[in-house]
């Protein structure tokens, strides 16, 4: 459905969907090996990394789990820089595996503050790693990852990045910004259905991996590495997602990363301007507003559930509500992947009609 405007899964171009309809192949045969090598090499171009990169058959959360269990040991202190629902999930996950999580958690809608991070790293010299969400999908906020990563490296800590809703859409040169483990997932800006997480690793991440003692099996990067050398994944991969990725990555490389990032910036701006033209406001400060998801602050008399229903049933446009404590307080427009300014125009026109009907 092209009216699907949630922040993932995102709509997929027909060419990509058609690729998924292909017959199965042997995932341990030469044809799949060629696809795996091709997809991995192209993803590295878009991650802007010379490090290692693996495809894991799971959703984004599996990729975050892989980042944690492959680099940390129970009892390791980690600084969780969280600005919303997904940041808190990242922290919870690390805690479940025995990390000592030091929370630096912000009010939802705010971005992380570099001075706070500096203070936290100064106060707790034993911190081994920093967990950070680049683009917090629940609040529509993009952190200043460039500044955060340079600070984290000043303190010589490991940086684990949730880039699930940013990579491939918002600027994130993985090597230049010294991200040690960087995670994204197929259903976001990559224009592919859910099913695979893509994770890159720096040499420092491999060094941490050699000492890491958290329990791991399915997501063990040593296994992923030795199988990739043979053109395979350790376990049966989502073969159809690999077919889709191959087509999607060709489309993305043809458009060019700089053009994709510029398109998302234009689309993000159009969404914010459109929201304001309706008399609504963008939930976070615009300085931090995301170019992949716009969180819209609602007014007291607006019934968000009703608005989403009207948009879905009368306009064929599916938007998202707020998550957890933001339920009823915001709604979100997803604009990542296969999207342009005309899509935003359509959403804003539909909202103009729907908003009065959803207000008490
Ligand atoms: C920033 C961020 N982190 C984590 C996740 C969780 O990913 P998944 O639902 O693919 O496991 C999402 C999904 O929306 C996300 O946007």
Give structural notes.
By secondary structure, this protein is an alpha/beta fold. Helices cover 43% and strands 16% of the residues. It contains twelve helices and 13 strands. It has helices spanning 14-20, 30-47, 60-71, 85-96, 114-123, 145-154, 203-211, 221-228, 239-255, 257-277, 304-315, 341-358, and strands at 52-56, 77-82, 100-105, 127-133, 135-136, 141-142, 158-162, 181-185, 197-201, 281-282, 293-297, 320-321, 330-334. The protein has a seven-stranded mixed β-sheet with strand order 1-9-8-7-4-2-3, sandwiched between helices. Strands 10-11-13-12 form a four-stranded antiparallel β-sheet, covered by helices on one side. The longest helix has 21 residues, at 257-277. It is globular, with a radius of gyration of 20 Å. The two termini are 30 Å apart. The mean pLDDT is 97. Bound molecules: pyridoxal-5'-phosphate.
Name the hetero compounds present: pyridoxal-5'-phosphate
**Total number of strands:** 13
> Poorly predicted ranges (pLDDT <50, ≥5 residues)?
none
Question: Percent of residues in helical segments?
Answer: 40-55%
Radius of gyration: 20 Å
Helical run tally: 12
Q: How far from one another are the termini?
A: 30 Å
Strand content: 15-25%
Query: Helix-strand pattern, N to C?
Result: HHEHEHEHEEEHEEEHHHHEEHEEH
Please identify the oligomeric state. Answer: single chain
Q: What characterizes the major β-sheet?
A: 7 strands, mixed
Sheet with the most strands: spatial strand order: 1-9-8-7-4-2-3
């Amino acid at each position: 459905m092209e009216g699907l405007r949630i922040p993932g899964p995102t709509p997929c171009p027909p060419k990509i969907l058609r690729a998924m309809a292909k017959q199965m192949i042997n995932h341990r045969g030469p044809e799949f090996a060629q696809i795996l090598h091709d997809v991995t090499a192209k993803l590295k171009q878009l991650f802007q990394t010379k490090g290692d990169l693996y495809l894991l058959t799971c959703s984004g959360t599996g990729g975050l789990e892989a980042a944690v269990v492959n680099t940390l040991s129970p009892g390791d202190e980690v600084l969780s820089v969280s600005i919303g629902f997904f940041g808190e999930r990242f922290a919870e996950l690390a805690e479940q595996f025995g990390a000592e999580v030091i929370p630096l958690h912000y009010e939802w809608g705010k971005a992380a503050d570099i001075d706070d991070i500096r203070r936290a790293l100064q106060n707790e010299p034993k911190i081994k790693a920093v967990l950070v969400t680049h683009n917090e999908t629940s609040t529509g906020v993009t952190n200043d990852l460039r500044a955060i990563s340079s600070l984290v490296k000043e303190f010589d800590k490991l940086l684990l990045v949730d880039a699930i809703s940013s990579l491939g859409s918002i600027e994130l040169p993985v090597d230049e910004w010294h991200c040690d483990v960087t995670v994204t997932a197929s259903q976001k800006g990559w224009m592919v259905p859910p099913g695979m997480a893509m994770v890159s690793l720096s040499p420092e991440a491999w060094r941490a991996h050699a000492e890491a003692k958290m329990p791991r099996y399915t997501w063990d990067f040593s296994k992923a590495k030795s199988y990739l050398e043979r053109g395979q994944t350790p376990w049966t991969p989502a073969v159809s997602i690999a077919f889709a990725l191959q087509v999607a990555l060709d489309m993305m490389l043809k458009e060019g990363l700089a053009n994709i990032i510029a398109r998302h910036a234009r689309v993000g701006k159009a969404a914010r301007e459109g929201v304001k033209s309706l008399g609504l406001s963008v939930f976070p400060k615009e300085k931090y507003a995301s170019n992949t998801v716009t969180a819209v602050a609602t007014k007291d008399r607006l019934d968000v559930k009703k608005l989403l229903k009207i948009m879905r049933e009368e306009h064929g446009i599916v938007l998202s509500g707020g998550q957890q404590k933001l339920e009823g307080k915001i709604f979100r427009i997803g604009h990542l992947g296969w999207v342009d300014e005309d899509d935003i125009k359509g959403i804003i026109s539909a909202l103009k009609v729907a908003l009065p009907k959803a207000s008490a």
